Amino acid sequence: QVQLVESGGGLVQTGGSLRLSCAASGSISSINAMAWYRQAPGKQRELVAGISSSGSTSYTGIMKGRVAISRDNTQNTVYLQMNSLKPEDTAVYSCTAVLMNEGFERGYWGQGTQVTVSS
Fold it and tell me: Residue 11: which of 110, 112, 106, 85 has the closest Cα?
C-alpha cells in the first residue's frame, strides 16, 4: 500500500508564502518523477511543476518565477515553495509520483491540500 500525503496548505494573505510537502510511504523501491498539480473550483486541474529522480525541474507558466519544486529522496518527499501568492492561486494542490511498487511502475496521487489566498 502506497500513500502520498500532502501538508502545508492553509490560508495566507496576498503576497505571502507557503511551502507544501508531499511524503510518499509504503512499499516503495524507487520514485521516479514527482509533480505538483492544482485545481481551482470550476476549473480543470493544471500542472504547476515537476521534478525528475535526478532533480531536474520543469515549470509551467502559471506560477513561473514564484514557485520552486524540490525533493528529498532520503525522505521520499517532494516540496513546493510558493512565493508572492495571489488570490488566483487559490486551489487544491495535489502531488503525484511515478514509483516502483512491488515490481511495477505505477502512478499515485495524494489527496490534496487546500491553499487559500485572501485579497
Answer: 85
